[in-house]
## 1
Amino acid sequence: MDKAKPTGTPDGTVPDATGDSHGTAAEPGGSATAPDASTSPGTDTRTPPRPVGLTKADPAAEPVEVAAPTVPGQAEEAAVPPATEPPATVPAPRAGGAPDAVVPAQQQAPAERPRPLHAPDPYSTPPYGEPGPWAPAPPVQRPVPTPAHGTYLPPGTPAHGTPVPPVPEAGPAQGGEWGRYDPWAAPGALVAESGGGPGERRRERRAGRGRLVGAALVLALVAGAVGGYVGMRLERHGGLGTVELEQTSGQAGERAPDSVAGIAARTLPGVVTLHVSGGDGGALGTGFVLDGRGHILTNQHVVESASDGGSIRVTFNGGETARARLVGGDPGYDLAVVKVSGVSGLTPLPLGDSDDVRVGDPVVAIGAPFDLANTVTSGIISAKERPITAGGEKGDGTDISYVDALQTDAPINPGNSGGPLVDERARVIGINSAIHAAGGPARQDDSAGSVGLGFAIPVNQAKRVAEELINHGRATHPVIGVTLDMGYEGEGAKVGGEAAGGGPAVTPGGPADRTDIAAGDVITEVDGVPVASGEELIIKIRSHRPGDRLALTVERDGESRRVTLELGSSDPS
């Protein structure tokens, strides 16, 4: 027996999200529903859908209304039966249009797959659970920041609250739709591969690392070069900019009078340089001013060539030059005086007392060594009364000088000859004359240089000789009136057998003859000082003036006696 069912909805009708029915049996006439006869024209003829899950139509069931969808743009949603309910059956229609029997739902025509309940995913994210645990994770979705309300935006900027459209995909790439996903990319961005697989990406990464390494090497080279330059500037100049060194102010006032600088300042104005030319060649030496009339004292061996018609040119400390003439010289003392005329403003040097000099006293030597004018050296008095002889180039002994010299370690070189040796009070105490050479003391016109053994004529002797040369044009020699045997090799000075030319060895009526000194006697001491040779006896005698009294120790036939005599005088021949 057929049961009556309400009109408007056939049995087993399942409405889908769009309002269409799925899985319904077709009614004869091509419609699964029929309009209600009581519905008036202009009204909705559809009948609200019925709940699904019943095997047969229930005439007593009340129609259920489905709530309107809450998501804009989506279709209405219908209740979906649980998956555990048995399959629904619908009655098979009869020819008369009434259902006759129930037909299982599996035998009905296939229905469309239900559409998802959410909006389509712009990133094509598959539903969770599909296709399986190997599916890649979806990209990180972060909200796109938008400017605060009221912030000025340049033209073309989306308004506040306007959603930012998704980044368009770059197209299919190898490895599937998710092959372009890069979890380390910027938020909301997809990595578009230009092509190639993992191998090409590895090559690109290696190329990028190579570029980074190259850039690091270039940067290291540049930094090293800059660091080296900065270090060089700091090492050499103490900084990178212009270097300005601090400088203390000069010392006020003069130097101490007894300092080398103070002594030189007072002595240099009175020192001159001599350039001599003549028939025997030229010579270079030094001299110093004796008085305001232009008298200059120097060594005889410096101006010797001028005695044959040569010329003498004098250069003063300030650079002025003047011609000079030879006043007189004495080879035995190695002293000479020259004079300049028409020169004013001369600075005579004060003369000291060489007898007051002590060993160790500081001294300063000034001269023109190797033509280096106004050279100042300093030292001390190394010894006193050094008996030296110099010269002898002529061979007849007339050019030999006998000097009871002052020894100094102040450097003296060729060109210093005739220059002053001054004490700490800038007083002249000696005239530099000779230096030590390999064969013994020699004059400074030799090519040898200083070895720290220099010799100066004591100023007391030089003063007497200079006065005689200025006043008389010649100098006298103190004598005792004997001829010495210069070949005697014993200790002391032996009186010879005869004088030169066959005369007697003891000058009749001379000082020695008056004290009973005879030929063959040996003089061993002078004023209590031993003498070792005839040269030393001559040096000791010439260190005195004529008229001075000497005490001599004389030996004869092994007996010694002491005699006192007064020195005589002789003109040089």
Note: The longest strand covers residues 375-390.
## 2
Amino acid sequence: MTTPPTAAERPDDTSGQAAAHPVGLTPRASAERPDATPAAAAEQPGGASAIAERRAGLPAAEGPDGASVAAERLDAVPTAAERSHGASATAKRPAGPSAALRPGGWSVAGERRDASPAAAERAHGGSGAGEPAGGPSAGGEGPNGASAVGERPGGPAVAAEGTGAVFPGAESLDALLGDPWRAGNPYGFAAAVARDGRAEFPHAFAERLESADLPLAHVPAGLGGTLTGLDDTLQRVRVAARRDAAVMPATLLSCAAVATVLAAGTPEQARAVADWVHAGRTVAFALSEEHAGSDVLANTCRLEEAPGGGFTLSGSKWLVGRGATAHAALVVARTAPRGPAAFTAVLLGPRELARVRRAAAHPVTGMRGIDFADLVFDGTPVPADAVVGAVGGGLAAAMRGQQLVRLLSTAACLATADTALRTALRFTRSRKAAGAAVAATAHTERDIALAGAELMAADVLSLTAARYAQLSPGTFGLCSHVVKRVATRLTASSIVRSRGLLGARGFLADGPGSVVDKAQRDNAVVESIDTSPLGVLRAVAAQLPAYAEPPQDARTAPQDVRALCAYGEPLPALDHTALDLAARPRDRVLLGFAEHAATVAARLEECGAPRAAELVREVRTALAATVAAAADARRDRARAAGPEPLDLADSGCLLYAAAAAALAWWAHPGRGLYGERADGAGWLTAVLAVLLAHADGRDPRRVPAGDLAPAAEAVTRLDADPQLFTALPVRLSDAPGPA
């Protein structure tokens, strides 16, 4: 997913909005209003779903180093016209295939996929109509003999809808795909490694996921999709991508283009992209240009008015995900000499794309088999009704959609880290040294704990962010950058630790080393494919200082904060049009934690977790110091020009994750997370201790063993069940590993 970093979401634009409690202030108990609703009345519910498009997973339209729009104000771009034409998330979908001509004159009539499986099955990743060639038998069995309706091989039936599972769709989809450790499973680890070695597109796997409607998981139900909650979508994508992260760009890549259209396009355009995805088409997202690198404002691809009406496109776009095979494309091109309002987005259908030259795909190190190709335009005709939103509003529209892309890309990070850690756990339990299992040695236990704590920190933040985007899309901008930075950084570190546990087998081209090697290379792609680490940090650095200002209003209530962490609970319809680039200090996680940190710490004390309570207070102090230092550095030209603002932003991201973890524990009274007993805080102790160490620049290996131990216990317990390494239970189809 390539998109410019939203460093332009400037914190100095308060637009008369009252700030809630800043991170640096002492919380006021009076702000805990019991009458507050889960979503503030002034904020539009919804958010934008953004990672999936039928066969394209990670939009690669932005350069691998991220596009920077540093000093430009994107919130100055007029959005009234866009919003007045925005597609409603609740728009009614025609009862049958739409016969209307879409952009480019392409009719989708008769090209929609069969409506089966039933809507209820599709919404939960259920039964498997449409097996790929070489896949399971037509009798509905998975590759290891598991029934497509959700029975786990060698274990109890997977919880289906109505049985109490928090994410039944993820469990059903995993059961459909079968045991990934079985050598003959076409959706397993061995098959993924073999495809990777041949740089082969995962055709059969993609078809299997299409039969379960995974490509529709980011499309609102009102447009024929299966999106209910983004946290549910995140989990469904994770159980597929843990087997092979390449299935994300193979099935979901259209999400960047779709999110942009839903944020700013017309209802007709929204129906067009939804129909394309429903028909198994890929809509590419083309933004980056090689010569411009991370500076998207230096892009030169031009959209010019044509003498007879409409427009023409000239120039090229670089590293477009699925560029060589896409059926349609959203292109952001220059329409004015300078500034962020100098770009316009257009939606090209198959007719226009047929006149575009597609360069050969670039070789890549991770997610092999997915084409990242250049699109070359030479006066390509573009109809006037292909413009998405307002002329001059294309970059703003794309950046709004990218907030969701950043979020959903974390599914690949979490999936690859899950696979690496699970592989390492099983390997260390199967090997012995001096008569004892390697897993039982102090050094191995520590590294398992660190890898587990880093993965859990990324997991809990991603789940929280997924709900945040839907509950309060208008304030989601900062969180979208933070979750991308934290998930990529921490899962990369977790995978390195997991690979180290394999010893010499970690660099062998077969066995466990090959599985972890692929996971590591795929994980690395995600770090830069939509917004670069530098672009993310610039955006966070631009916003962080605003949280040091005194509050003018208290608007964060306990119910608001807890709703962010009520994983799996119903969410309002996703409203893409409410995504906002304004950078006012309204982030619910930061303000909510500032307001309730003392309450959380007191509750931990009551539950017999004084160490966790102490760490929560340390996070509160560290956050206050970080935002204050960021504000001071911004006022000092010498400091502002150096690396300090980005370093503070990096620390701020990690502390933000710590705040989210503390709020997640608080939001589940009486229920243990990560398989712990009710109100258990061992996992929280490990996560906070590791995040504080990272944020302070300390080696996490120096964290006291007592703080780390619960993380090792948690991941060992979850693998033995087996369950996904996530906060609330998601049962997996894996055969039991060595005891």
Note: The two ends are 39 Å apart (CA to CA).
